[in-house]
Design goal:
The protein is 43% helix and 18% strand. With 400 residues, it is an alpha/beta fold. The strands form three sheets. Strands 3-2-1-4-5-8-9 form a seven-stranded parallel sheet. A six-stranded parallel sheet has the order 12-11-10-13-14-15, with helices on both faces. It has a two-stranded antiparallel sheet with strand order 6-7. Helix 4 links the parallel strand 4 and strand 5.
Length: 400
Amino acid sequence: MRFIILESGLNDLHSHAFIETLSWEKACKKLNIDTLIFIHKDASSKIAKDTNGTPHFRHTPMQSIRHDPISDRLHGFVYFSEAFAADCRKLALELSSNDIVIIPHATAKEVYGVSLWMRSVSSEKRPKFVFIFINPDLNWKIDYEKNKVHGDFSQFRLGANQLSILLPNNHVKYYANNPLLAQTMQYVLNQECAICPMTIDYFSSDELPNQFENIEWKPAHVGILGEFRIEKGSAKLPQIITDFCNKKIDKNVFIQVKTKEESKKLQEYFPNNIRDRVQIFHGQFSQRDYLKRLQSLDLLLLPYFKNRYYLRTSGVFAEAAAYGIPVIVSEGTWMHQMLNNGFGSGIVFENLSPSCVCEALVMASDNLSELQHKAGRGMAKWRKEQSTTALVEMLASKLN
């Protein structure tokens, strides 16, 4: 048995794909599984060395074409599917039916692209395939009351139908790590889509590659980490933090933003009486510094939009659960579902109005000891059930 991992989204040190690929390499080595890892062609020599990956792919899973609104969706699907297939053919691998090819961030383009690739491989040498879905199609609409998704499913269905012709049933496995996404994809593909552990592992800072920043963070009571985007509540945060700091005059806050301009705009928004209690960092952390910053927080605020995180998971939440950091999360999201299922520790707010989020933050701050105790108790269970190691063990058992 050999794992061939196609991590085409790994092109920089700061993405989830980097820590994810490190975890694939670590888990496969631990279980003595022969592994080949292929990453994006723009990945640096340091990334390639740290992950044992070979730079190769031209495009990432989430790339799109913006030329003509009428045809962009179809154009992108055709172009990137064919490009993925061409890149796979250029791997020039000696394949066998004992190989397991894993696509950790699968979209319709990879599913259909694999079907194009397999047409050039003789049937007796076609390997097994594992597709893991992380995100739904962003154009799909969710009916929360009926728990249904509406949209164009044709691209996924086409790829799945083609693969069912080219490969035996037991040679294609579809997975998602969000139970609701797995349920949705089963309907979309008209094929079984099972729930799998998250593709993530939990390192100590000393295990991660030294990337030279090595910043010593001062502790913060509340932190907002990750990409500073609208879907993650960026437009609401200034008022939320202002209200919280006015109510909790002895507490400080850390915020990560993408650009210097965003940092300046935030600083100007905050009144003088709280400005020195809000630390703003612009740019991206190394994985080592990100982990150290996370572990220096008392609370992690995740004011994410329900419509984006109903079918998606959150790597930041997963890390908070693994390192015992209580969270404040939006109602109706996957993070809320995990808290309800007994994973992690935190407070849920009903809506994204600043007053509602601030109230939940204050409640979490007032009950910090209790929340931290619960978070600490749940760390081991989360790490055992939600990790790449658990996923690799499951795949080896089912597919060997």
